[in-house]
Write a structure and sequence with these properties.
heterotrimer; A mainly alpha (about 300); B mainly alpha (about 350); C alpha/beta (about 425); B: mainly alpha; two-stranded antiparallel sheet; two-stranded antiparallel ribbon; 4 strands; globular; C: about 425 residues; alpha/beta; D-Maltodextrin-Binding Protein, domain 2; 2 domains; five-stranded mixed beta sheet; four-stranded mixed beta sheet; 17 helices; 11 strands
């Protein structure tokens, strides 16, 4: 059913039965899309509603917004008590971008080698990379803390970026390898016959084809880094802390008070850049596909 | 869509592991391997180094620590003193659920100790893994198939699907804690009075629901990327041949998405086996929702060396699962990716 | 044969990994055990210079103005404020990591009362005796006890906290003095169709607080004077049994098993509870929050005990000095500065933190601002520090894991107490 509807739009016009079936299929698609929207957005909606609620009415359960206020957002960005939410937001973006770019770069190298080159110890390398994502993350903190203290990296950006790169690398390498193996490499060879070097052939022919996979992997890498909390909570400093750590230190005006409304406001703010990012990437993914199709 | 794959649409994806053998076999094969090996080591070096520093170094240090006893308090001075070498004691104690007896020797760990929770935490971890990964796979597949269709508002759905994932886990857990509070919106909306975090099954389902909500987008996105690489002509040809929707799904979609799907399932499984934040914040591990990772961090606060042994055990358990996965469930990610399957087919 | 293929990579990865550390200079020295390792308690006693003060999230902006004031008076011994997250667990782990790394920049650290013994026994805190002695006269006795380990003071009591019984003045004319009296008043709640009593019974640190209070209030104790568990007693049984019975009767509502501080406060503010055990912070919120239905009928009393006031669990923080600090003379001055009357008053008015100085509880100006102070004084004077032991994480787990099923009625009280006892015994070697 999947690509069929698309195809039919282009080629299969004319038959009435098919048209009816198409309408029916479209209808079902919309219903399914609606269900997905509700499932994904209902809890997030509750987050946003709570974010706009007066802190005195935190536990109000009316479905529609009530006791609306912007105070929580002001609290979130208020720097007078040493909250550095704005700075933390920038830190997260910076760390996320560097992690994504670097891990994709070296991940694509590795994936290319694994998918295209013939060499000894390939099992070993694949097993090693997979093995790296089997150790409980909570047990990594202490050794890393001591390592970074010894070399004077505590609280620096690289102390946050390098662990994150390592966390996303196994997934990046495996995903890219699996996609690379599905590529029509004959095209690369014909490009080389036309006089391209192997590098040029890779850049000009293979990369555009791999665009959807690369952007998918980029999103995976970015969000994984964006979500990371445990390592950052121990290895960051006031100046470098990412937004996850900043949210965890959100405190109510009173000890013991859990400022749900401010936390939800922060959650809302954190989610927005991601949604924008995805919408931008959307275009890129679609562009990558059409570019290939034109050729 | 995907028509760029036109030249060799049917042959290519079905062939699975043919990619790298453009190098002629036979004469000079060793030379080729050597040359490519040199290339490969350069391309792989950054990845290997990054993993070695951040992951391998801690693993080794944990393994070394796990053979040391934890510091104990000297009853005279009240200060901690070095524990000394412990051999396999830490490992044996975990697996046999033994604790030190005040009278000397060991006794079965009484309820109320971390040591008494090893097997129940293992069972809980596996339960969560199986249920969440299964639900996420099915839901993720369904979402991906919907998102692969063309319809108005598709990009809205694609963006919306990522919202749960974009919210940091720490916030997600607080959000669900808030939703599942006794006076919270979940009970209000469904007109129930369930103590979500107060008894075993509701607490387990609360964790599962929150995890599935949060992580399905990961699955959906990876599967979607796989779907997009299937040439539309393949479906077209199948339809001309009169294949039903179900046949097309089983004979075309599933096999062609399988590589991407298996990578997704494998990594989700490894992740789920290390599940920590959600149950930790949502239930604090109460009502039999303690996972192995929660047990590790609780033990770290009581003694590092014993915790290191538990980390290593967890590592081994996950390794075994990955092994079984690769071996028996056809998730031959390793083999398939090395191209070794060629001879078989 | 086929299986081999899969085993190989991982086995090889292991080998590779081993050889890597061999080059990396040995991972064994990193051993985190923290054993015996403490620093030199005799070094740097006269050191003066800039120091860092480490504390969890500064909720109500009290630390910054204080430090500004200090820095104006001590331009050569400036204090830098290092703020941790708001989560107690993470504060604890952050301190442990830095002590293990012998970080000289964590000069003065704010330590939760339950961590003092652990940090002291690890040799991380500078004993406050002899040259480094600190004057504790005028401080509430339980706060000193909680900052001491084996008879030596290891930290300066900084702020305190104790449980308060909140009640509905409109429904109950005078507060109950004993537990039985309170249970007797539950018929009023029943008539109104609301819950009678709640504390914090979710399985977390709050349950340790509530269960210990129940046990201590009836004459029992979790640990004896030598730090050995002493739970197999009639008193402990009677105390824990009170909670079990009340939960079974419905005097403690069913949902209280999911309550932490905030959920229980919410239920009380919504008018769904007659009595609530909670911390002093509830007063401010219950009297000011827009949704509160108890604004004008909020009563406060000491926790009810067996024959009189019950024994509250003690909360609060102490300020400890790291043995690794290079400027201990400055650090000691700063500790003294934190415990002056002026500073303590500022903590109380600005941050609603309970002072550690006895006389401030009778200060008219303060009481006018914080009407719960007299009640809190009784509460803290009768307070029992939560078990002072270097094995606190194990002890609190033993209490939580056994009190929780006992209250839910899934485990007999006797069995719960004897398992608590055994659990603590096996873990405090």
């Amino acid at each position: 059913m999947t690509a069929a509807t698309e195809l039919r739009a282009q080629q299969d016009r004319g038959r009435k039965v098919a048209q009816n079936r198409e309408k029916w299929a479209q209808g079902r698609t919309y219903i399914s899309a609606l269900v997905i929207l509700i499932w994904c957005l209902a809890p997030a909606y509750w987050m946003v509603v709570t974010a706009f609620r007066d802190v005195g009415f935190t536990y109000d359960t009316s479905i529609l917004p009530s006791h609306v206020t912007l105070d929580n957002f002001k609290t979130a960005f208020d720097t007078s008590f040493g909250n550095r939410f704005g700075q933390a937001l920038l830190n997260s973006v910076f760390i996320g971008v560097v992690v994504t770019v670097v891990s994709l770069l070296i991940g694509v190298f590795a994936a290319y080698a694994l998918a295209r080159l013939n060499f000894r110890f390939k099992f070993l390398v694949l097993g090693f990379i997979l093995g790296a994502s089997m150790f409980p993350g909570v047990a990594l903190i202490t050794p890393l803390f001591q390592l970074f203290t010894n070399i004077g990296w505590m609280g620096t950006y690289q102390a946050l970026i390098i662990p994150n790169i390592s966390f996303v690398l196994p997934l990046t390498v495996y995903t890219m390898t699996s996609f690379f193996r599905e590529m029509p490499w004959e095209l690369e060879e014909s490009a080389r016959v036309d006089g391209c070097t192997q590098g040029q052939a890779f850049r000009k022919v293979i990369m555009p084809l791999a665009a959807p996979a690369i952007f998918t992997t980029a999103i995976l890498a970015f969000i994984s880094s964006w979500n990371e909390f445990l390592i950052a909570s121990q290895l960051s400093s006031d100046a470098t802390q990412p937004v996850t750590v900043a949210i965890a230190s959100f405190a109510g005006a009173q000890p013991n008070q859990i400022p749900y409304t401010a936390i939800m406001a922060a959650g809302t703010i954190v989610t927005i850049p991601l949604v924008i990012l995805v919408l931008v990437f959307q275009r890129k993914i679609v562009a990558g596909l059409t570019a290939g199709a034109v050729k | 869509m995907a028509t760029e794959l036109g030249p060799t649409p049917v042959k290519k994806p079905a062939s699975g592991g043919n990619g790298l053998h453009h190098a002629p076999k036979g004469v000079g094969e060793d030379n080729v391997i050597a040359r490519q090996g040199k290339w490969a080591s350069w391309l792989l070096a950054p990845t290997i180094i990054a993993l070695a520093v951040v992951i391998v170094y801690p693993i080794i240090s944990a393994i070394v620590m796990s053979f040391q006893a934890d510091a104990g308090v000297d009853p005279e001075t009240g200060f901690f003193t070095e524990g000394g070498p412990a051999g396999f004691t830490n490992y044996i104690n975990w697996i046999a659920q033994q604790c030190a007896s005040p009278a000397g020797g060991t006794v079965a760990c009484p309820p109320g100790t971390l040591g008494s929770q090893f097997w129940s935490a293992t069972a809980t971890t596996f339960f969560f893994t199986v249920v969440t990964v299964a639900l996420e796979t099915v839901l993720g597949f369904w979402m991906a198939m919907i998102m692969a269709r063309t319809f108005k508002g598709r990009s809205l759905v694609r963006a919306a699907v990522l919202v749960p994932w974009a919210i940091p886990t720490a916030v997600t857990a607080k959000l669900w804690l808030f939703i599942f509070a006794f006076e919270g919106i979940a009970n209000k909306l469904f007109n129930t009075t369930i103590l979500w975090t107060g008894s075993e099954w509701p607490a387990k389902w609360a964790v599962i629901i929150a995890d599935v909500w949060k992580t399905t987008p990961f699955m959906a996105l990876l599967i979607l990327a796989g779907l997009q690489m299937i040439p539309a002509e393949v479906y077209e040809a199948a339809k001309v041949d009169g294949a039903t929707a179900w046949q097309r799904f089983r004979m075309i979609t599933l096999p062609l998405v399988k590589p991407a799907l298996m990578v997704a399932i494998l990594f989700r499984t490894l992740d789920a086996l290390r599940m920590f934040d959600l149950p930790y914040i949502l239930t604090g591990g109460a009502n039999n929702t303690t996972t192995l990772s929660i047990l590790v961090i609780n033990q770290i606060r009581q003694g590092f060396n014993v915790a290191a042994a538990l980390s290593t055990i967890t590592f081994i358990i996950i390794f075994l699962v990955a092994f079984i996965f690769v071996r028996f469930l056809g998730a031959n990610v390793v083999e398939q990716q090395t191209g070794a399957s060629k001879g078989k087919k | 044969m086929k299986n081999r293929k899969y085993l190989l990579p991982a086995a090889a990865a292991g080998v590779l990994a081993l050889s890597l550390t061999a080059c990396g200079g040995g991972g064994s020295s990193s051993g985190g055990g923290g054993a015996a390792g403490g620093g030199d308690a005799a070094a740097n006693l006269d050191g003066r210079g800039p120091i860092t003060y480490v504390q969890g999230k500064d909720n109500s902006n009290v630390v910054r103005p204080l430090i500004e004031k200090w820095n104006k008076a001590h331009p050569d011994e400036k204090v830098t404020f290092k703020e941790q997250t708001d989560q107690a667990d993470q504060q604890h782990d952050d301190l442990v990591q830095n002590f293990q790394a012998k970080n000289a920049n964590y000069d003065v650290v704010s330590v939760d009362v339950v961590w003092t013994a652990e940090f002291a026994a690890k040799g991380w805190l500078q004993p406050l005796k002899d040259k480094m002695a600190l004057d504790t006269s005028g401080m509430l006795e339980p706060t000193i006890e909680a900052a001491s380990y084996k008879g030596t003071l290891y930290a300066a009591p900084e702020s305190s906290d104790g449980g308060i019984l909140y009640y509905r003045k409109d429904l109950v004319p005078t507060a109950p003095k004993t537990w039985d009296e309170m249970m007797g008043m539950c018929s009023i709640a029943k008539a109104k169709n609301i819950g009678c009593y709640a504390g914090q019974f979710s399985k977390y640190e709050g349950l340790t607080v509530n269960a210990s209070e129940a046990i201590n209030s009836f004459g029992g104790s979790v640990l004896d004077k030598d730090g050995k568990p002493s739970l197999n007693t009639e008193e402990a049984k009677a105390g824990l049994n009170n909670l079990v019975k009340a939960y079974a009767d419905g005097n403690i509502p069913k949902e209280a098993i999911t309550y932490k501080e905030e959920e229980s406060r919410q239920a009380f503010q919504d008018g769904k509870l007659l009595f609530l055990r909670n911390w002093p912070y509830v007063y401010n919120l219950a009297t000011t929050e827009g949704s509160s239905k108890v604004k004008d009928v909020l009563g406060m009393a000491p926790l009810p005990g067996k024959d009189g006031p019950g024994a509250s669990s003690l909360g609060g923080h102490s300020a400890g000095m790291s043995v690794y600090s290079k400027n201990k003379a400055t650090a000691l001055d700063f500790l003294k500065f934190l415990t002056t009357e002026e500073t303590q008053k500022f903590f109380a008015t600005q941050g609603s933190l309970a002072p550690v100085l006895t006389k401030l509880y009778d200060d008219k100006e303060l009481v006018a601002k914080l009407p719960y102070l007299p009640v809190l004084k009784t509460s803290i004077e009768n307070a029992v520090p939560r078990p002072v032991t270097p094995f606190y994480p194990a002890v609190t787990k033993a209490i939580q894991d056994n009190a929780y099923p006992a209250i839910k009625g899934e485990k007999p009280v006797d069995a719960a107490l004897s398992d608590m006892q055994k659990s603590i015994e096996t873990q405090s070697k």
